[in-house]
């Protein structure tokens, strides 16, 4: 019986020690591509861009001519007038520049949106990997706890152990069984988050490809700070400033009065006369009537510049905090791998070899295996924290992973 149990425990330990094989399933790249196809926030981008292009086309139009027909006394007197407004002060060019600045802002907003959704997908994908790896290790822990409890029960029945030991072993087993329910719940929650991030219910049950990365090499904080200037968040704030500049320039052109030219043909059957009139109209005091709009545009520009400066400071502080978290997570994972996990693996191997030579009891084998599984669970948690920290840093630096070309539905 003991030999059979030992074989089971040895097999479990071997599975724990062996590196995970690469499973075929949903890759991170495919998850990001699916989010690009299913998330409405992204599929709406081409339509928003086309709307912005349409506003440019509309801004390029010049004021068209107007026809005015008038008759009095049952066609005894009539007038046909054509008028056309001639824009002055560069109104059309300012209008076009404002529409183009708005289109650039739409593009920057689309980049930030892709970045945010890519961040959500990557975090959710990493969380599922971590939850499923922890669940697998927890299942092995339950199997070991059951084997431990069975072995202690045999020793109690043989009179080689105290009944209190059997109680302790039973408590350990039930605790492991409760832990697996928690691990199962974590997997379900992580899968639900992945469904929300990707926007495809099919990923709820689809196996994922790969495992948590174990590379603990991270860049220095100074190197990360140097890359912050390319952040899409900062570029969006810069585009907002340009939009406000364009709006102010457009309002300034409104201070110049336009000229409306008119030409009319008039006729009177009563007087048997026909005559032509030509005239022009110029609004008076146009600059005075535009002071309020100018003040609003100038204030909006000042606010946009302040918001850009505040965003730069906020992102720098967030990056500093994220970089510190990344460094700490990398150090923790490295220490666990080099000291805790390696020590637990060596101890498990030594105890198994000692049991084979008759130097250790079987309970020591089970205990060493449980220590090894606990170390692997702790190491998996550290790898999960490291992966999440990397993704947070990538979000601040603008590394999205989302496909750049998105087709409309």
Write a brief structural summary.
The protein is α+β, with helices and mostly antiparallel strands. The chain has helices spanning 2-17, 28-38, 40-43, 45-60, 91-157, 163-198, 221-226, 232-253, 286-289, 291-356, 362-397; strands at 66-72, 77-86, 259-268, 273-281. 69% of the residues lie in helices and 9% in strands.
User: Would you list the SSEs in sequence order as H and E?
Assistant: HHHHEEHHHHEEHHH
Total strands? 4
CATH homologous superfamily designation of one domain: Outer membrane efflux proteins (OEP)
Distance between the termini: 63 Å
Radius of gyration (Å):
37 Å
**What structural class results from the helix and strand content?**
alpha+beta
**CATH class category label of one domain:** Mainly Alpha
Arithmetic mean of pLDDT? 86
Query: Level of helix content?
Result: 55-70%
Strand content: 5-15%
Largest sheet: 4 strands, antiparallel
The CATH architecture of one domain can be named as Up-down Bundle
For the largest sheet, list the strands in their spatial order: 1-2-3-4
CATH topology of one domain: Outer membrane efflux proteins (OEP)
Shape by Cα distribution:
elongated
Descriptive notes:
The chain has 409 residues and is of the alpha+beta class. Helix content is 69%, strand content 9%. The protein has a domain at 26-62 and 93-245 and 312-397: Outer membrane efflux proteins (OEP) (Up-down Bundle), CATH 1.20.1600.10. It has a 4-stranded antiparallel β-sheet, with no helix packed on it. Strand 1 (66-72) and strand 2 (77-86) form a beta hairpin. The chain starts with a helix and ends in a 12-residue tail after the last helix.
